[in-house]
Every structure is written in C-alpha cells, then in structure tokens.
Specification:
Length: 317
C-alpha cells in the first residue's frame, strides 16, 4: 500500500528519527534543535520508550541496520542496544560526520539531499529538499507491505512517522507507553483501506498540515538543499515568518506554487480549526531538556583505532 501523503515531523535526521521511534514529537524527548554529532554528550533519553521496547515484552526479536543518529554517549549509553534493540549493524551518526567503514555505510536519510546532486536523491515535483519546510523536506516515501493482510493500492490519507509506534503496538497486541503520544493508529488505513478522519501534523511550530491544506507559519531553507536553481531552497535564502500563514492546497498544488487567499469563508473556517487544534497541541507540549544543547566532547566520538593519538583526527578507518 503506497502512501502519497506521508510526513516526517522534521526535515533533518535526529529529530525525525526520535519521533519515529517514540511516537512523540521530538520536542518532548529533547532531540532539538538540529542534530546530534559523533561527540554529542546527549542522546535519546533512556526513559523514552522506543518501538523495540514496546515489542520486546511480547517476545519479538529486534534489530537496527543502518544509521542510528540518536547519540552515542559515555560508554555507548545511547546506542540502540541500550534502547531495546537486540542487535545493531551500522553507524551511530551520519556517514559524512566521521569514520565510516564501507560495510556499514548507508545513505544519510530518505529525504533528498540536493547538495549532493545525483548522489543525494531527487524530490521530483516537490519543492526543495532536506532541511527545508517545503514539501521536498517534509513529505516522505512510505509503503506498507503485508501479503494477505494489506491489499495493494494507493492511499491519500495523511499519516506520519509518529503513527508507526501506535500502529505496530495495536497490530502486535502490545501495551502503549504510559506517556503522551502524538501518533495515531493507522490499522484501519492498512487493513480496511479506511480513513483516519480530520488530522493535523505539526513540524516544530513552522508548518501545520490539515487534511490536504498546508499552513506555513515560517519557511526556511538549508545547505542540504543547495545546488537547486530554486532561490527559496539554499541556505542563502532568508528565513521568513508569515502572518497570516501561507496556505497551499496540496491536492491541487503539491509543488507549492500558488498560495490560497486567506479571506474567503471556506479558508477562514479551516484556518480557525487549525488554530484551535494548534492551541490544544501547544498546551499539551512539555519540552524535554535539549540533548543537542548539551554540546559535544571529542572523547566521546567513536574511534575505529582506540589506541591512536591525537583523537579524534587519528580515528580514520
């Protein structure tokens, strides 16, 4: 089953991975702002419950293959094997951040990193790419495959990485973590080709999605999306706040070329609904301590030659 409207909660790696694994916005777990580095002191807090930790009590074997990018920490305290996973084969950060053996080197993310041109992927008709609040940075490819259970086809229902944990929990018969979850159960979409009803997805307070409308409160670009001729994409573009927000009908205009007028009755009605849901969302948000703001310590960087000196410059595989 192919999703046409599947979203990440953030256009960069560490925060989006935190929300995928926990079913919670990254601001709750403290994986903000930006990303973690090889020597980051912080990481995904151990009191957060991951998908692996939800499934382990039922006897599931769990493993991570590829990029982790949610911290290493002292004595590897934040690595996957400390977060409910039985095995980990990969690297703990982006392949361009430090030593990386070819055997375990994987692409940095599933978002198109346009700065790498043909090696970084392609956003197709979507605007910009990784690191930006445009559709090329927020919309994700997603396919659900379960022969005999999920019928092949296409769904235009909106879903996000937040929904993976609660969906897997229901399908497995597992208990949900006793914390505030932001994702919703997608089982009806997967097995009944049903609908989830009205739904909002937020991205760090910059973008709101409601049905097929996108409300851009602030737009920003990124060096990840340089090399494209679109002047809104590279990091040289100016951060822009929008009041009233820019509104796009993504069903008719997925490329974000044409903003909708905000003064029409139907748009005003939808805008009011978004404001109401956003206010409820913000009132429920308790920000976790920023793990990124804890800074870095070169001594924490993984080294493939532990006895070498000086670190980290000698840690080249």
């Amino acid at each position: 089953l192919r999703f046409t409207d599947f979203y990440s909660t953030c256009p960069v790696c560490s925060p989006s991975r935190a929300s995928l694994l926990t079913g919670r916005y990254q601001t709750r777990s403290g994986i903000y702002p930006g990303v973690l580095y090889p020597g980051s002191i912080g990481g995904l807090p151990l009191n957060e419950t991951t998908i692996a930790e939800v499934l382990k009590p039922l006897g599931y074997a769990t493993a991570v293959t590829g990029k982790w990018h949610l911290g290493v920490g002292h004595n590897g305290m934040f690595l996957p094997t400390k977060q409910g996973f039985d095995h980990f084969l990969g690297i703990p950060y982006s392949h361009d951040m430090g030593p990386c053996k070819n055997l375990t080197c994987f692409p940095p993310d599933i978002k198109p990193e346009l700065m790498r041109m043909s090696r970084g992927g392609n956003a197709g008709p979507l605007k910009c790419g990784k690191g930006t609040t445009y559709e090329g940075g927020m919309r994700e490819p997603a396919i659900a495959y379960w022969p005999g259970i999920i019928k092949p086809g296409i769904t235009h229902e909106m879903a996000s990485t937040l929904d993976i944990l609660p969906t897997l929990a229901r399908l497995a018969g597992a208990e949900l973590p006793q914390v505030m979850l932001d994702g919703v159960d997608m089982t009806d979409i997967l097995v009944k080709q049903g609908k989830v009803g009205l739904m909002c997805v937020f991205s760090l307070y910059y973008v709101s999605y409601f049905e097929y409308f996108k409300f851009t409160l602030s737009s920003f670009s990124a060096f990840h999306s340089s090399t494209t001729p679109d002047k809104d994409c590279p990091e040289t573009a100016v951060f822009k706040a929008h009041d009233p927000p820019l509104i796009f009908d993504l069903e008719a205009d997925p490329c974000e070329h044409y903003t909708l007028p905000v003064d029409t009755p139907d748009i005003q009605s939808v805008l009011q609904q978004v404001k109401t849901v956003k206010k409820q969302f913000e009132s429920s948000m308790v920000f976790g301590e920023s793990q990124v703001a804890k800074g870095t310590d070169p001594n924490l960087e993984p080294c493939c030659n532990p006895e070498c000196s000086p670190k980290p410059s000698c840690c080249q595989c």
